[in-house]
Specification:
Elements: E1 5-7, H1 8-20, H2 25-31, H3 37-40, E2 45-47, H4 48-62, H5 78-86, H6 92-103, E3 110-115, E4 125-132, H7 142-159, E5 165-169, H8 178-185, E6 189-190, E7 196-201, H9 213-219, H10 225-229, H11 237-245, H12 256-262, H13 267-276, H14 281-297, H15 304-310, H16 316-327, H17 331-345
Parallel strand pairs: 5-6
Antiparallel strand pairs: 1-2, 3-4, 4-7, 5-7
InterPro entries: AraC-type_N, Homeodomain-like_sf, HTH_AraC, Tscrpt_reg_AraC-type_HTH
Organism: Allohahella marinimesophila
Protein name: AraC family transcriptional regulator
């Protein structure tokens, strides 16, 4: 069960280029089974499955893997063709070199530059840098962020384990929704930098590619759209705590001291690490309850009172208040909109 939920701001990012191209965003949302309420409610969130479906719908409608956010189109199938070429490399260092060469053949709005070795004081680190070569139609910077996410998670998939990020740098100021970045990248974030890039340990460049052509073809049925929707699977303390808690939220959640013990840390050290990741144990618990609730409310499987129990509330009224605080909607209103769109799309 994929319980990640996606905030309003990223849904708007997906739709931004289509709107500028004259496509009705409500039509795209409806085709993905998402209520138009997400456009009106800044607290609205959608489940990851529908979000990935929306990305694919935008690509299909615009015939553009750049989602209408650039001055030129990237025809559907470009990423797949690059992947089939790059997988011939033995290591992800080779994948990155071939990918840079492949996209360098086209008139691209964003240039990808692979650096196998950074200069002092970053010895032992490598980077994948994005530089804007043409004006973008992307005031929210969604296009660049998406490219970073796709390339990071694609390379992690190729080697069968997470490429741990040292940091991510952005060449623009921190946005209002910066907290959402933490679940995407799970590493230190730096803004107002000279370039936008992911920085990681050089040792990962020698990790072997373990996927074959058959696995890649299966992967490409839903990706790279799914790469934008799935949670990051790495060693951040946020991700590790979510793993300790698990997905059964009906029982009492473990206390902070128990979680710290499971992570082999003192409570004081874990609090400090969470502050460094711009979160807290209470926020992690609330976000997990919210995401599991959204997952279940988007499906007809359980009545709302049962969902309240499933996410750890003994009183349905308390769950109603908490959910409205999280999303701006009551559970009933969220379910009604989600199921109506699901029925329309079937």
């Amino acid at each position: 069960m994929d319980t990640l939920s996606i905030p309003n701001v990223f849904v708007r990012g997906v739709l931004s280029g289509a709107e500028q191209s004259g496509v009705d965003p409500v039509q795209l949302l409806s085709a993905a089974g998402i209520s138009a309420e997400v456009l009106r409610n800044p607290l609205a969130r959608v489940d990851a499955t529908r979000y990935a479906r929306l990305v694919r719908q935008v690509w299909l409608e615009l015939e553009d893997e750049f989602m209408g956010l650039a001055g030129v189109r990237s025809k559907p199938g470009t990423f797949a063709m690059m992947s089939l070429l790059a997988i011939r490399s033995r290591t992800i260092g080779g994948v990155m070199r071939r990918s840079e060469q492949f996209y360098g053949l086209f008139d691209n709005p964003v240039v990808m530059h692979f650096e196998a070795q950074l200069a002092e004081p970053d010895e032992g680190l490598a980077a994948l840098t994005l530089r804007t070569a043409q004006p973008l139609r992307d005031p929210q910077h969604f296009f660049q962020e998406s490219l970073l996410v796709i390339w990071h998670r694609f390379n992690s998939w190729l080697i069968g384990q997470q490429v741990l990020l040292d940091r991510v740098e952005f060449d623009y100021p921190a946005p209002a929704h910066v907290k959402e970045y933490q679940q995407i990248f799970n590493c230190p974030l730096h803004f107002d930098c000279p370039a936008t890039r992911i920085v990681f340990q050089q040792r990962f460049l020698n990790f072997p590619v373990i996927r074959d052509d058959a696995e890649l073809r299966e992967f490409l049925i839903t990706s790279p759209a799914d790469l934008l929707a799935r949670p990051a699977d790495n060693q951040s303390y946020l991700a590790r705590i979510r793993n300790v808690i698990g997905r059964d939220l009906s029982a009492s959640l473990p206390d902070f001291e128990y979680v710290a013990e499971q992570l082999h840390l003192s409570p004081q050290t874990l609090r400090r690490r969470l502050r460094e990741e711009n979160t807290s144990y209470q926020e992690i618990k609330d976000d997990l309850r919210r995401d599991v609730a959204i997952y279940h409310l988007s499906r007809p499987d359980f009545p709302i009172n049962e969902i309240a129990y499933q996410v750890g509330f003994t009183e349905a009224s308390t769950f109603h208040r908490a959910f409205k605080k999280w999303t701006g909607l009551t559970p009933g209103a969220y379910r009604e909109a989600a199921l109506a769109k699901r029925k329309d799309s079937e």
